Structure formats: structure tokens, C-alpha cells
Queue: 2 jobs
Job 1
Amino acid sequence: MTVQADSAMPTAPGEPSELASRLRVVLGRLFRRLRAEHGFPITHAAVLGRLDRDGPQSTSDLAAAESMRPQSMAQTLSELEGQELISRRADPADGRRTLLEITAAGRSALADDRRRREGWLARVIEEHLSRREQAVLAEALALLERLAER
């Protein structure tokens, strides 16, 4: 199924390399726009989201999961801790290790941030895409999810 969202979009599927290039550009633009809706830096939201989803983790685990240097992650965690959005505690399985966990204030800040970002995106989808285009977007999301799993 091919949808023409605007006159610049071809009506026939392109070569995989062309599709990859266009997808990278479009996702980059969308990501930057969503980032503008954040209440705090994207790295803070990513760490809070990971702690919320996956539970307490060490600095090195978080750095690896977010593809960050441990020093950069330590700085991010220090900032989050200073805002009382995360807390530290000893790992019950290994007292030499420290685990970081999201606080109630962190969950609240994360929920507010998610509502702001998702609210903007939902509003744009509703106001600027027809019902048919929204259905096509839903189908495309399934494809994007498959790509993300590879």
C-alpha cells in the first residue's frame, strides 16, 4: 500500500537505500521535534524511563544500556539525584555495588514529560492526518517495530 502524504513523496516504493536514507532523515526530524517538547534533557528522560521500566540498576548497567560512557552517565545520574528524581541504595545481592532507582518525584516528572510529548504528537496526528492516513500510520508502526527488533 502506497500513500502520498505530500507531493515530494514518490508514489512507488523506492530502493532500500533510498528508503533507509529518507527514514533516517524523517525520524531525525521527528525526534528533534519531540525532544523540543521535553521538560528536561533527553538523557534524563531516557534514564528515568529505563529505571521506571526495568527497575533499579547500576551506573555501568545504565551506561551500557544507553550507549553512554560511564563518566557521562555518572554526570547525568548526579544531576538527577540532585533533583531528587533518583536515589541510591546498596545492592542487596552485593553490598559493594550501588543501585539507582527512580523516586516518586522522578515517576511524577517522567509522567508529566510523557504527557507533554505524547500530547503534542497525538494532537498533530489528530489535526493533520485524515482517518485513512492514521490507519496507514498504524500499519507503518508495525513495520517500524519489526525494523527496531532487528
Note: The CA atoms of residues 58 and 73 lie 10 Å apart.
Job 2
Amino acid sequence: MLTVANFNMHAGVDGWGRPFDPIAVCATFEADVLVLEESWTNDADGPGTGQAERIAAALGYQVVTCPLANGRLARPHPDATASWLPRLGFRAENRALYVSSVRPLPARELASERYRRAQPGTWGIAVLTRPRDDLVVEGSQILHLPSLRRDRVRRAAIVVDITAEGRPLSVVGTHMSHLQYGSHLHYGTLYSLLRTAARPDAVLLGDMNLWGPPVRAFLRGWHRAVKGRTWPAWNPHSQIDHILVRGDVRVGKASVLPAAGSDHRPVRAELILR
């Protein structure tokens, strides 16, 4: 059995910029393979010192990372309340995260006091694997997706090839754009790339920013391992965080996990490799 989990960690902060402990959260997943989105690295700390690397070092994982955007991580908001984010949490003066790589942020955001005091860094994805006697990492590659005109960040998928319980398997981690930004184009590209870039038996994990039925329609031959509401974490009404499998991979116990500090709930599945 191979246990996998996915967590969009919102850079380890809530909507007010208050930090939580991502290492402690990820330890509770007890996953052999863990995919993270919105993992943060402060520029001042240098490469290889980001949240994904720190989680890997603390919990005994190997890690492959891919930065998707430059940005800034705000300090805790001085007027924070018990809610996860301010009532107008996405206004420039309230943001916890500012990210953009493809085109600049609006002038109003760049001029805001909150942005100017925030810490510069990079925002990205990571695939973590915990070696064991019957789980060996054989290699990895990054599949870059073309830019979308309305999307502010780059998109990519990390493919990690492993042998688990004697079976060759690919683990894929990604963070897709929104449908209104043209993510259907990325789904088509990703589907085509994974036909050859990933092994026939594979698992795909990520924040797909899309509900389950259209994800399955775009990714024919992939099957949902987890069904349940994941967003927003404090009162979820939609599932946009997914684990999908293809080939001779069967799903055992699978679930949406409790809220863990981010605006997304983690998802976890036990996979049976036959």
C-alpha cells in the first residue's frame, strides 16, 4: 500500500498573514508521498531553505521543488480577528500573499503599505517522497505549461518516477490555473504530456482549481480517488483539491482531512498497487 496526500498550504499562513506550523501539519498525514502547493521560500534565506525543504528535512522526505511565481508574503495583520481572513481579504491593503511572474501586479497593490513591508520570495509546488525498503525514487522531471494571457503565474507539473512494492509508478504534482483564465488549454497540454512523460500506472495530485466532473472530462482515463469538499477550509462547498489515479492502481481508504491552517483542506488516499 502507498499512502499519498496533497496540501495547498497557502505559504504556511492564514488570510491575515498569521503563521501556522506546516511541519506539524504534514506530520499528521503519515504519507509516503506528499504534494504541496503554495510552498514559500524567502529570498533572504536563499535557495534550498523554503518550507518544502524544511518539511522534508524534518520528516525524512526527499523533495523536488518548482517555483512558479515571485511575490511577497505579508507580516501578520495588526487588526487580525478570529476569522481566517479579513472581510475584504483580497483588497491590496489586506492581502497575505502577493504573487506574479508573467505580468506586474496592479499599481495600487505595489503602492500599498502592506505590500512594501512584506517579505520578497518565491511561491511554488513540491513533491516529497519518503524512502522505505520497498519505495525507491528513480528520477524526476518538470513539465512546464505555456503561459495563459490572464494568469499572473507560471504553471508546471513535477513528475517523480518511483518503484513501490516492486511496481514502477509515476507521481505527478501540479497547481492548475482557474477555468476563467483558460485552464482548459493547460488541461489539454497536461493530458498529452502525461501520456508519455508519466508511466502507465500513475497518481496525479494537486490543487486543480476545478470541480471533479470537469477534471475527469479533461483528463480522460484518470479516476478520482477522493470525493469531498475541500474549499474554503472553514466552510467548504467545493472540491478543487484532487487525487487521481490511472492504470492498475486501486484506491483503498480515502478522505478529505480536517482544516489545517490553510484555506484548503488536505486530501489523503491509500493506494493499492496490484
Note: The mean pLDDT is 95.
